[in-house]
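so i finally got all the pieces together for this one. its six components total, 696 residues if u count the protein bits. some of the lines might not be protein, just check the labels. i wanna see the whole assembly predicted at once instead of chain by chain like last time, that was a mess tbh
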Amino acid sequence: MGKTLDEFNAYQQRMNKKILAANDKTMKRIYNTDTNAYLAGAMDVKTKELLGLVASMVLRCDDCVRYHLLKAHENGVSTEEVFEVFGIANLVGGSIVIPHTRRALEFWEEISASEQ
Amino acid sequence: MGKTLDEFNAYQQRMNKKILAANDKTMKRIYNTDTNAYLAGAMDVKTKELLGLVASMVLRCDDCVRYHLLKAHENGVSTEEVFEVFGIANLVGGSIVIPHTRRALEFWEEISASEQ
Amino acid sequence: MGKTLDEFNAYQQRMNKKILAANDKTMKRIYNTDTNAYLAGAMDVKTKELLGLVASMVLRCDDCVRYHLLKAHENGVSTEEVFEVFGIANLVGGSIVIPHTRRALEFWEEISASEQ
Amino acid sequence: MGKTLDEFNAYQQRMNKKILAANDKTMKRIYNTDTNAYLAGAMDVKTKELLGLVASMVLRCDDCVRYHLLKAHENGVSTEEVFEVFGIANLVGGSIVIPHTRRALEFWEEISASEQ
Amino acid sequence: MGKTLDEFNAYQQRMNKKILAANDKTMKRIYNTDTNAYLAGAMDVKTKELLGLVASMVLRCDDCVRYHLLKAHENGVSTEEVFEVFGIANLVGGSIVIPHTRRALEFWEEISASEQ
Amino acid sequence: MGKTLDEFNAYQQRMNKKILAANDKTMKRIYNTDTNAYLAGAMDVKTKELLGLVASMVLRCDDCVRYHLLKAHENGVSTEEVFEVFGIANLVGGSIVIPHTRRALEFWEEISASEQ
């Protein structure tokens, strides 16, 4: 498993822990909502992760993109589907999404390689 | 069928026609890509419209939201699913998405009423 | 009391009620967090409303700006303070905030006139 | 001359006057910088107005777009050039710029008609 | 004192000096306005820095966040207050602010450690 | 030639190649439109690159800024002109553009040094 993926996970876990330890009610509520919003409901988890991914891409949040790529992979999203999400994100959000697409693809390849 | 929905459709069609009539190559290519990106591929049309909807909501583009609500309705998206898209959009994009959610719901109700 | 202010309040209340009536858990959690985040804590309510106002201005959300102007007025924010918020918002967010500042000032004048 | 154009100009002038009358130093400095940034320098006024226009479009500020369309028209920008700005704005900023392009074209037609 | 903090300060000072040395009038006016906007007025410096911080967070500008965290620290802002700013920023700006909150907290800890 | 510039070019070329190799129609259309939008038309290439640069700056896309700085340099844009673009970008987009201006200037200096 590649280093970037490990580093991303380690940093995210360490800082999330610190943020939650501060016991700020608003931050805790947001983390709680964030966890629950992607659970299965009228839509299944896979579709919700695709929604989280495209929203993160058009808002150009690399770490959010990485998080949802990990979840998308866990939920059986294929490389073809990921590319169609990239297409819609770049169409709706414009060519400023291209640099994020490059980094997203690099991370996706790392995730895909890590499971073998 | 309500007036807002009619007005929206009429204005959009009238101005799109003018934009395309100007024969600017870049604008024509973008319109062409916009049409094709939502066709069935690795993902079905319904899923793609949900992606277009959530991307439009977090980027806070009311007219884009209206367009994708119309398409979502045509492709059998339920009110429960629309609300789950609203939830993810408001979580990822923040409380600034709330005013757009109010207008989106109003439009969704109009679309739903128009078919009866 | 002016019409715009009345209309704003009526529309907001009517649609918020509908959104909450749909019982979508994510939307309800976000509304709940939104209510609680501005309660007194380490910072007083007035300071928090100023924060909500400047955040809404730089993100260019007119309805959010109106909401926080109402709350700021209720909590004793002066016109001089409002203008200093406008200044920081226009500096940080750029001249694209100017049109929102025009509408914010118009609404602030209406709020101020409504109490007389 | 059409009503929208008149209304836009009247509202803008009335509110700008009020904003400046409040004597907030930051707001006055920003207005002052805004006036001076588009004066001829290493680039001519026309080029600078094209820059102001494309920046306003990708940031999706309708009133800013209107202002720069007026200035662009005064400085001899052609309809072909306006469409090329539209093209770059829609490419870089994505399909969320399309609704603003519709309104921009409508305003441009009104400006063009008003001079005859 | 940690390296990140030193590097941030050194890079910022070096490049700001170069930008100002170019003598571009617009850039100089913006730097000048930026300095003056946060001086005491109807609001005190601490409140203004909190406004600068929340605006920088919702606009997701890490270097701006760092700058205002430094200023907030100098003006006696507590860790509890910083977390309440984080809360409002994440509520208004959405979960895309979370990665910036992680980096902001890391920098805040470094500032806090550097004074001991 | 500096390392940053080399790395930027190498990474961009490597990832663009992979993106295009995936044969996603939407992504290919967007890349194709991106190439064609900056060709000479009613406006010359230099003006179009200035438009691409200012749009990239206000949307705060560092890699897009770098790309257009390279193209601007190839098309004879002067340092004075680049600074006037910086000025308009910082005015329209606000002080959150300042960190991107620092990095843009650093890259511009590297491009300028690389040709000697």
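The first helix of chain B runs from residue 3 to 21.
Chain B touches chain C at residues 60, 79-80, 83-84, 86-88, 90-91, 94-96, 98-99, 101-103, 105-106, 109 (CB under 8 Å).
anyway lmk what u think
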